[in-house]
Each structure stands twice: as C-alpha cells, then as structure tokens.
Amino acid sequence: MNTAITARPTGWLSKVPQVALSFWVIKIMSTTVGETGADFLAVTAGWGLVATSLVMAALLAGALWLQLRTRRYTPWIYWLTVVLVSVVGTQITDLLTDGLGVSLYLSTSVFAVALMVIFLVWHRVENTLSIHDIVTRRRELFYWTAILCTFALGTAAGDLATEALGLGFGRGAAVFGLLIAITYAAWRLGGNAVLTFWIGYILTRPFGASLGDLLTQARADGGLGMGTAWTSALFLSVIVLLVATAQIGVDSARRGEVSE
Fold first, then answer.
1. Does 81 score more than 60 pLDDT?
2. How many other C-beta atoms can be found within 10 angstroms of the C-beta atom of residue 98?
3. Quick one: CA torsion of 244, 187, 150, 72, rounded to 10 degrees?
4. Which of 56, 64, 111, 256 has the fewest beta carbons closer than 10 A?
5. What span, in angstroms and rounded, lies between the C-alpha atoms of 128 and 142?
6. Sorting pLDDT into bands at 50, 70 and 90, what band is 26?
C-alpha cells in the first residue's frame, strides 16, 4: 500500500483528524450512539425503521454536504458526520434483517465483499488507502463510502456474533475488544499502519454495538438495563465535550497561524 504523490487542489488541507487516543475514544462512542440512538428512535420513540432511516439519511446528506464543502479538518462537522453515518449504517443492517428478513450471515458476507471491492477500487485508482492522504475530493468520496460500509458491516457482524452465534452482549464485547487489542499489538510490533488502522476501524463498530446492547438491553436479556435514552444521552454528552475541546484547539491553532 504505497502512498501516491497527488497534487492538492489550491487551499486543500487534510480533512480528517490525527489518529490519537481521542480519535478512537470518540469513534467507539460514536458507534455505540449509532446502535443505541437508532434503537431509541426506531423503537422507544416509535418512529419505526423506515421513518428513522429516511430522517437520518437526510441529516447525513446535509452533514456530508458540509463536510465536502470544507477545505480543512473541522472537528464538529467531521464527527457529526461520523455519528450520523453510524446511525444510518445501523439502520441499513436493521432494515435488511428486521424489515426484509435477510440472514445476518448473508448481510455480513455481502458487506464484507462490498468493503473489499471499495478498498480495491480505491487503491487501484489512488494507489493509497491512507487517511492521511485524503487531500482530493475523489479520495474523500472513497473515504466516506468505505466508512459507511464499515458501519453497516460492523453492525451485521456484531449482531451475528452476539445473537446468531449466541455469544451474548458481554462476551461479544470482550471478543471484539480482544481482537482490537491484538490489532493494536500487531501495529506496535511493526505491522502495516494502513492495514491495521482499517482492521481496527472495522472492529470498533461491532465492539461499540455490543457495548451499546450490553448497556441498554434488559437484565433478563443479558444487558445492564440502562435503556437507550440514558445511554445515548450519556455517550453523546461525552462526544460533544471531546469534540468541543478538539474544536477549540483547532481554532486556537489557526488563530496562531494568522497572527504569525
């Protein structure tokens, strides 16, 4: 996975955050909110799968429009888009499973193949899959297409592991957490940074979904009974706090650049 040297459009800077601890914390919390938020709107609030999917898809389109119009990384726009992608990705899988009766084995396989095709085409066209090289509109479109597919795949894989394979929410979260730890160890030992990043990114989705189900589902069903409303509100509050801190940091740095 070599990095191609591509001329940047005038004024175009990297539009994705640096991959640090805060990145992964917000990512995991976003995946959990995607699971609990989708369940809250579709079930608890009574919107239903179709209405929830349509509303969230419209909001995602608006967030993507903002993201594509920016010329540099803007934390609140980027992470708003990620949260909405998480909800929509969850809804895609739920519509297939609950609405159309598609097997989790089939949906997981189809999304896995689809993601492989996206990566193959992306790499064939751009000669890189590194998120540090998202410096053209075409690469950004590849990036967000892959992100959406990872959320749909992660939701299907998480449900497959916890429900169809009978791992349950706690063991499911533990298994995916272990796989994330192994991926991190592989990177620390010199594994390919781009490959381990995308493996970790995919795995955080079923981990977050399993964690969300563990927190929200009734104790009789193997959960902790916190409910979707409280869990979504708690995780969203932490996300807002972390993103606001990142936004303040970015704004301060840019003011420093201007003053110089």
1. yes
2. 11
3. 40
4. 256
5. 11
6. very high
**Lookup: tokens for 23:** 């990145």
Q: Identify the band that residue 258 occupies on the pLDDT scale cut at 50, 70 and 90.
A: low
Whole-prediction pTM: 0.87
Question: Rounded to the nearest 5°, which phi and psi values hold at 153?
Answer: -65, -45
| Alpha-carbon radius of gyration of the chain | 18
What is the number of other CB atoms lying within 10 angstroms of the CB of residue 123? 16
What pLDDT is attached to residue 260? 57
Between CA 27 and CA 79 the distance in angstroms is: 8
Report percent pLDDT > 90 for the chain: 47
- Asked if 177 contacts 207 with a C-beta cutoff of 8 angstroms, the reply is yes
Q: How far apart are CA 22 and CA 226, in angstroms?
A: 25
Burial class (CB in 10 A: 0-12, 13-18, 19+), 259: exposed
Output the CA angle 118-122-125, nearest 5 degrees. Answer: 140
Task: Please give the average per-residue pLDDT across 21-32, as a whole number.
Answer: 90
- Dihedral of CA 174/177/181/183: which sign? positive
For the chain, how many helices (H) and strands (E)? 8, 0
